[in-house]
Specification:
- By secondary structure, the protein is an alpha/beta fold.
- It has helices spanning 15-19, 29-42, 64-70, 86-95, 108-115, 119-135, 167-180, 197-206, 234-244, 252-266, 273-277, 280-286, 289-297; strands spanning 10-13, 46-52, 78-83, 99-105, 139-145, 159-160, 188-190, 211-214.
- Strands 5-4-3-2-1-8-7-6 form an eight-stranded parallel sheet.
- α2 (29-42) packs across α3, α2 (29-42) runs antiparallel to α10 (252-266) and α7 packs parallel to α8 (197-206).
- The radius of gyration is 19 Å and the shape is globular.
- The two termini are 29 Å apart.
- Bound molecules: zinc ion (ZN).
- Zinc ion binds at residues 18, 159, 161, 189, 191, 220, 231.
Length: 298
């Protein structure tokens, strides 16, 4: 392999949460359970199932408690949820959610729009959430939005919800972060707003990062970011990894099946390249050898 890449990565499927939280059509508990079951069957070991936010603010996630209560849990799979405050931790504990994620934005303006608090106030609130979660055996992780750029301000100090990250910057930031905080298990989260999601994942892998978020069919977006597009599509990431020989543990055909089902449910197209063009390997097997050669020579 000419590039200095990692051998294996872990992908967290964030479609059920990040992907669905801005959709007009609200999926029922049953529909979400089928989607999550499909994701598990495809081989994912980390899934972001939903969030415990105010049902008024995010009605798409109002049934997260019910989804957790009815999950058919598979051993070795981590089902996590996003929380914003103590109330969220309490809801997580009550429905059997064992892993929560706290989020703060590196951008003050984005944090105010999203959580109605400054980043410092949000981080201050983390202590109470951490204590409450630990006391009931819930594992906690954290995430930083707008870590690679913000459309509002330039106070940027690893989620790229605004789609402003670019590969050389990702490589540099990841390399610096890994050196400064070697004890942290970093996840990278890219949206494909400007078509750089996959290139950014490549840059992350070159920097030695092995954990990535993606969403089936590339669903998602952020209501506060101008022109925001979906998350980088899971099948596009798995396909790239298959092509370059990086293990993901995910069955691409099964992942594509789940993505197609989701698109049908939502009743609109997405930016997934794989769903539009199919796998490279399918193309080769579909064409007779001569025909393929002629096309290449043109
Ligand atoms: Zn996102």
């Amino acid at each position: 392999m000419p590039l200095n890449l990692v051998e294996e990565i872990k992908i967290c499927e964030v479609g059920p949460r990040d992907g669905l939280q801005n959709e007009k059509r609200i999926l029922t508990t049953e529909e979400k359970l089928v989607l999550i079951e499909g994701v598990v069957q495809a081989g994912f070991s980390v899934i972001e199932v939903g969030s415990f936010m105010s049902p008024k603010a995010v009605p798409q996630m109002a049934n997260t408690d019910e989804v957790f209560q009815n999950l058919k849990r598979k051993e070795g799979v981590e089902y996590r949820a996003l929380v914003a405050n103590l109330k969220g931790v309490e809801r997580a504990a009550a429905c059997g959610c064992k892993k929560v994620k706290l989020n703060v934005s590196a951008s003050k303006a984005h944090n105010l729009a999203n959580l109605n608090r400054t980043p410092a106030e949000t981080v201050e609130g983390f202590y109470g959430c951490m204590d409450a979660a630990r006391s009931v055996g819930i594992e906690v992780s954290g995430s930083i939005s707008m870590a690679f750029g913000s459309p509002w301000d330039r106070e940027i100090p690893l989620s790229d919800a605004s789609g402003q990250a670019y590969p050389t910057q990702v490589y540099q930031i990841c390399t610096d972060m890994a050196k400064t905080y070697p004890q942290v298990a970093w996840w990278l989260h890219f949206h494909n707003t400007r078509g750089l999601g996959i290139a950014n994942i490549m840059a992350g892998m070159q920097a030695g990062f092995t954990r990535y978020d993606s969403a089936c069919a590339g669903v998602g977006g952020c209501p506060f970011v101008p022109g925001a597009a979906g998350n980088v599509a899971t099948e596009d990431v798995v396909h790239m990894c298959d092509e370059i020989g990086i293990k993901t543990g995910v069955d691409l055909d099964q992942a594509m099946k789940v993505s197609r089902q989701l698109i049908q449910l939502l009743n609109h197209g997405t930016d997934s390249y794989l769903l539009r063009a199919g796998k490279s390997s399918d193309l080769i097997s579909e064409l007779p050898t001569g025909q393929l050669r002629n096309q290449t020579l043109k």
